[in-house]
Amino acid sequence: MEFRIKFRPFKLEDAIFINKLRQEEEMEQLIGGSKRPVSYERDLKWVEQIILGDSQTSIYFAITFMDSDEIIGYASITDIDFRNGSCFWSGIKIDKTKSGKGVGTEVALKILKYAFEELRMERCTGECLENHEAVLRMLLKVGFKKEGLMRNRLYKNGKYNSQWLLSVIREEYFEIKQNYGL
């Protein structure tokens, strides 16, 4: 597979883009985590901490097109557990003008490649809101398997929401790698 996107480290100026993404109400309603107003200054500090920190349990990637350095989104792998070989794909945020064009699929495949080939994980999990059908389809398309529905897992949008728990294990990744020519 020839990727149109690449990962790069965060830059301080990415905080402007990240803060704008947080203001997009539609996106915030469909992702896990608490919705709250976040100032540009807080996002700047957060990006700085990611850049200067040396976390052994999380990695953040700025997403750009191959021919550009301009950020179009970001993704992360968290809860990295080297002893047990597991990690959590904490999701993806992409500029809405770039979504729906296969970018999410490419990001998911690059995340899996990184988790299994660079971090040498045995298992990578992911979650999505039960009613976020586009993300569920994308996760299943790239090879994640449903493990179950976590009922009333997340309070969001004024109610408790269920979330799908999905995963890919190492042996499945090698099938994904072959199917997509990674």
From TrEMBL:
Domain N-acetyltransferase: 5-166
Alphabetical UniProt keywords: Acyltransferase, Transferase
Top class in the EC scheme: transferase
GO molecular function: acyltransferase activity
InterPro entries referenced in this protein's UniProt entry, alphabetically: Acyl_CoA_acyltransferase, GNAT_dom
Catalytic activity, EC: 2.3.-.-
CDD domains given in the database record: NAT_SF
SUPFAM superfamilies: Acyl-CoA N-acyltransferases (Nat)
Protein name, as recorded: GNAT family N-acetyltransferase
Biological source species: Pontibacter ruber
